[in-house]
Amino acid sequence: MTQATQPQQSQPQQRGILMTDAAIHQVKLLREQQGKDLCLRIGVRGGGCSGMSYTMDFEDPSNIRPDDEAYDYDGFKVVCDPKSLLYLYGLMLDYSNALIGGGFQFTNPNADQTCGCGKSFSA
């Protein structure tokens, strides 16, 4: 009696930083304007009205460090250093083109408190 082997199902990539389709689309547009193949680095730094503020900028993929977490999103990488990821794991990045309150929005499940502008938090 032979056992039938079951086809292996590929597991979806687990991402510590999540992005909506609107955010992915906007990041791709902004990256194209740079004219280079860049990755998006997301992190935190001290400051802002609630204690820590979000950082987000494009950088050359050669700057990715061995201890960085990198997540692939349809051809571009989102990178985060391990210290920032402690505060950002599970973050949802969204984008809105609303005239008031538009731009990138951060929904952080680790934030105890968020400021009114949504660009800083405390944990």
Automatic annotation (TrEMBL):
Pfam families, per the entry: Fe-S_biosyn
Domain Core, by residue range, is 17-119
- Name its GO BP terms in alphabetical order: iron-sulfur cluster assembly
GO MF annotation terms: 2 iron, 2 sulfur cluster binding; protein-macromolecule adaptor activity
* InterPro entries associated with the record: ATAP (IPR016092), ATAP_core_dom (IPR000361), FeS_cluster_insertion_CS (IPR017870), HesB-like_dom_sf (IPR035903), IscA_plant_cyanobact (IPR031108)
Superkingdom, according to UniProt?
A: Bacteria
Q: What family is this? A: Belongs to the HesB/IscA family. Ycf83 subfamily.
PANTHER family the record matches: IRON-SULFUR ASSEMBLY PROTEIN ISCA, CHLOROPLASTIC (PTHR47265:SF1)
* Record-given protein name: Iron-sulfur cluster assembly accessory protein
Upper classification of the organism: Bacteria, Bacillati, Cyanobacteriota, Cyanophyceae, Leptolyngbyales
